[in-house]
Design a protein that fits this description.
Order of helices and strands: HEEHHHEEHHHEEHH
CATH architecture of the largest domain: Alpha-Beta Complex
Low-confidence stretches: 3-7, 15-24
Helix content: 25-40%
Distance between the termini: 11 Å
Oligomer: single chain
CATH topology of the largest domain: Cytochrome C3
Number of helices: 9
Mean pLDDT: 86
Largest sheet: 2 strands, antiparallel
């Protein structure tokens, strides 16, 4: 068994090297999942927007932002601009100056007039290339949150299970009331080689993503075994790789998925 584990670890590092060769290197934890939005900002003389997934995912589910609010899963594909924000779409769904999270009012994203102190507020988002003191610092924010063993990233699943975070999945005025679907039981996905089989949990994924984030755009069929894919496709950003190695935990931590005992 010890030899098998060593082989698994070695294989993971080989995949990590392949991923790195394709530009998928592992960033430091505070930058993991960071998105730079620059579709219109720089043309308007503003700095590009830095969006940190680690901060927002502590407060909201992925499904709320990518389904109800409508952010695309591909960077810079949503075409966010100041006008749509001010009309209450995209970032403006929450950042409108009136919506409250907990006991704290969420600041407005954009406005037409520049009042005294307006630059400071604008720079909270348009911070790329500027020395901006953020309200939330990753080190202090994540200090008490559980970490994953391999890369010291926040273990969001464990953080939620232990009550450190309680992500919201419903936004009044944006989300639609609907009955919950019956969640399928966990199932195994056979490995094609010597790696242990994968245990896939619908319950864990549905809690953050619902069904809509994955089906049908990422996984076009809900029938087990219909879609055939490999680790090379996943490392290329397809299927599981749409989220993992970008926002969700790294693909280099093989045993997070390949958790069923090795077949004999």
């Amino acid at each position: 068994m010890g030899i098998v584990i060593l082989l698994m670890v070695g294989f993971c590092f080989i995949l990590a090297f392949v991923g790195g060769a394709n530009g998928m290197t592992m960033p430091v934890p505070r930058e993991y999942g960071r998105v730079i939005i620059r579709n219109f900002s720089e043309q308007a003389g503003m700095g590009a927007v830095r969006f940190d997934h680690w901060l927002h995912r502590a407060f909201y589910t992925c499904r709320l932002c990518h389904v109800d609010i409508g952010f695309a899963m591909e960077a810079n594909a949503t075409k966010i601009d100041a006008d749509t924000n001010m009309k209450g779409f995209y970032c403006g769904s929450c950042h409108n100056g009136t919506r409250v999270h907990g006991s704290k009012k969420i600041f407005a994203a954009c406005s037409l007039s520049a009042t005294p102190g307006e630059d400071t507020r604008c720079n909270r988002c348009h911070s790329v290339g500027k020395k901006v003191q953020k309200e939330y610092d990753y080190a202090s924010f994540s200090k008490k949150l559980p970490k994953e063993n391999l890369w010291n990233l926040v273990d969001w699943e464990d953080a939620e299970a232990r009550g450190f975070i309680r992500p919201i999945d419903f936004l009044p005025g944006i989300s639609v009331e609907r009955p919950s679907l019956t969640v399928q039981k966990d199932f195994s996905i056979p490995s094609r080689g010597w790696m242990s089989d994968i245990i896939f949990s619908h319950k864990k994924h549905a809690r953050w993503n619902g069904c809509e984030v994955c089906h049908p755009d990422i996984f076009p069929s809900v029938k087990k075994g219909t879609v055939k894919y490999s680790m090379f496709q996943i490392y290329d950003g397809q299927y599981c790789g749409v989220c993992h190695d970008r926002v969700a935990f790294s693909l280099n931590d093989c045993q997070k998925c390949h958790s069923k005992p090795v077949r004999r």
